[in-house]
Amino acid sequence: MHLVHLRASTFFGGPERQMLGLAKALPESYRTTFLSFSEGGRCSEFLDQVHAAGFEGQALRNDTPRLRSAIRELTLFLKIRGASVLICHGYKSNLLGRIAAKRVGIPAVAVSRGWTGENEHGKSRSFGTGHD
Q: Least C-beta-crowded within 10 Å: which of 37, 116, 129, 130?
């Protein structure tokens, strides 16, 4: 089974650590690949960690505002690489990934971590609760 994680990563934080932790914990019969929207090159820290952990990782060439091109690129990647499941992390990945996965005929799993704001130190704060 080939799992593909899709993220719009701007630094190596908690979600990225969770994604790598999951991949490391899976049996060898699972193959895991990580994709990120380039986010102006800010995805490199995450992809460097992916490569250091021994996994395949790649930045998509197309990103905002070229969203249709990003969907086409992602669809082609999933088809050529024989992906079994697309695991989407974050709103952009969820929206665009679902379209690409549907075109290829594979399931898309949307991961949501709640309404938080993050910074490069991994600290988060909740929104809308009235509490800090």
A: 130
